[in-house]
Specification:
32% helix, Rossmann fold, five-stranded antiparallel beta sheet, GMP Synthetase, Chain A, domain 3, globular, five-stranded mixed beta sheet, alpha/beta
């Protein structure tokens, strides 16, 4: 079957900018993108790359990421976008596990590949050599190979927040179904423009934003590295129709000095995913007449649920309902469907869901039940059929035998005017096993913030859910996918608790 959709797009689309890169001062039409991909496919074939071989790219947001995707689809190879924010051990794990044959890279991040075999480190995508090789003016036509729908098309590795990254497999069928579903859901068409600021190695920035827009024939503006102030400038210049970002990115835009509501004149919707919403951010946008709607997906199942702008205004905490061609269940511990209002684990099923983990059949079997992927997220459904994510199952805090959902505590914490951002994690407790703590970024400095927050929490939440320790930070540490780094926060909390216990011992 032919999955070479960029070639079809090049045939049907008018000659207009498909990709604009303000950092490099370049722009490419769909016809250019197809020629670049055919040039790269020929190059890969010259290097001995065959159907089924894995080819990686280690780069910030750049047109080269798309060059490689389209080229691998032409040659039948396997596309591997690599997270350059991972730690050395995690990068080495991905390279070893994936059996990658060649890695294209950006020179700025080459040091992160130190120690990797020279024969794997292939070409700098920012070099003249690469530019000349893919240049549409040097076009070398390529005959697209035939692939089957169940052939492996891409490997995308998890962020490694709870261990080493796992390779998530996507067949040609699963990989193209997500952008199709997404484009249909958002009614994206060839007149649309957007800016990709989220990393293109991640499903949110790539599968949910970049590919649906290009599949629909629109125009994509690339921001190489995210910066709130710089994004505001891009907004002013290009006036996009929509944005898809994680909540912390919207926050960075809001607090930047050059934020201007006029930049949103053309905006039809703002979507957030990747992590829990920031209530303060939603409230601020709502006050300006704009709403941010929640979408839901994960590496294993890119965008599966989404709210609407209208429903989002009434139910800002909901992730809405399934997108087209996606089914779901909410299951209890016995894998039985729960009742309305009860909390269980969200399970999803659809053609955009991974068939499993690369070289990990036991892990795959453990995470599927009757064809449904077990997301690890706790959820509930209301009487209208709207779904709410309650928390991650693995992040549930069990203190003194009581279950505490961090998201519930964070929601109450966020209502205090002193709290700009709050993240709730557990720390080790000799008495309770685990205790509740909160890392907070304050709106203003206040020496009595702990007492004020404690009093506030006691008014609104059960005693066992109240944080027993607070940690004031100037910013919340983020992991490789720009989500709050809860493992790092737990370390900080445990260190603070240890110091407090040592002081108590000295005084005893």
């Amino acid at each position: 079957m032919n999955y070479d959709w960029i070639k079809t797009r090049a045939v049907f689309d008018e000659e207009k900018p498909a990709i604009i890169d303000p950092f490099k001062g370049t722009e490419w039409t769909y016809q250019d993108l197809n020629k670049r991909a055919e040039n790269l496919a020929n190059h890969l074939q010259d290097q001995g790359i065959e159907r089924g071989d894995v080819v990686g790219i280690f780069s910030p947001n750049d047109v080269a990421i798309l060059d490689l995707l389209f080229a691998t689809f032409k040659i039948g190879a396997v596309y591997l976008p690599m997270n350059w924010r991972l730690k050395t051990q995690e990068i080495e794990s991905v390279i070893q596990d994936s059996d990658v044959k060649l890695i294209f890279y950006s020179q700025k991040h080459l040091s992160s590949l130190e120690g990797i075999a020279d024969e794997l480190i292939h070409m700098d995508v920012d070099s003249k050599q690469y530019d000349d090789m893919v240049d549409p003016n040097n076009h070398r036509p390529f005959k697209t190979v035939h692939v089957e729908k169940d052939d492996l098309a891409a490997l995308m590795y998890t962020s490694g927040t709870t261990g080493l990254p796992k390779g998530v497999m996507f067949t040609y069928e699963t990989f193209v179904n997500n952008p199709i579903n997404t484009a249909l859901t958002y009614k994206i068409n060839s007149t649309y423009k957007t800016i990709v600021s989220t990393p293109m190695f991640h499903v949110l920035g790539f599968n949910d934003l970049t590919l649906p827009l290009l599949m629909a024939g629109g125009t994509l503006i690339i921001q190489r590295y995210f910066n709130g102030e710089a994004l505001n400038d891009l907004m002013a210049h290009y006036k996009p129709n929509y944005l898809i970002q994680i909540p912390t990115m919207y926050y960075a835009m809001l607090v930047a000095e050059n934020f201007d509501l006029k930049n949103f004149d053309n905006i039809e919707f703002l979507l957030q995913g990747g992590s829990a919403p920031l209530p303060a951010v939603q409230k601020k946008f709502n006050s300006m007449g704009l709403s941010i709607v929640n979408g839901y997906g994960l590496t294993e199942a890119p965008l599966t649920m989404v709210n609407t702008p209208e429903n989002g205004a009434e139910k800002p905490g909901s992730i809405g309902q399934p997108v087209m061609f996606v089914d779901y269940r909410i299951l209890n511990d016995e894998f039985e469907d729960i009742q309305t209002g009860e909390i269980g684990e969200l399970a999803v099923k659809g053609n955009n869901v991974t068939p499993g983990y690369w070289k990990k059949p036991e892990e795959t079997a453990k995470n599927f039940k009757d064809g449904y992927f077990l997301t690890g997220d706790l959820a509930k459904i209301d009487e209208d059929g709207d779904i709410y994510i309650v928390d991650r199952r693995k992040e549930m805090i069990i203190t003194g035998g009581e279950n505490v959902l961090p998201s519930e505590v964070e929601a109450v914490l966020s209502t205090h005017p002193l709290v700009a951002q709050g993240v709730v994690v557990s720390y080790e407790s000799p008495k309770y096993g685990e205790s509740v703590s909160a890392a907070v970024v304050l709106t203003e400095d206040d020496p009595d913030f702990e007492q004020k927050l404690d009093a506030h929490m006691r008014e609104h939440i059960a005693g066992y859910k109240i944080p027993r320790m607070y940690l004031k930070l100037t910013n919340i540490p983020l992991n490789s996918t720009s989500k709050p780094d809860k493992l790092e926060l737990q370390k900080k909390m445990n260190n603070k608790a240890d110091k407090a216990r040592q002081q108590d011992d000295e005084l005893a």
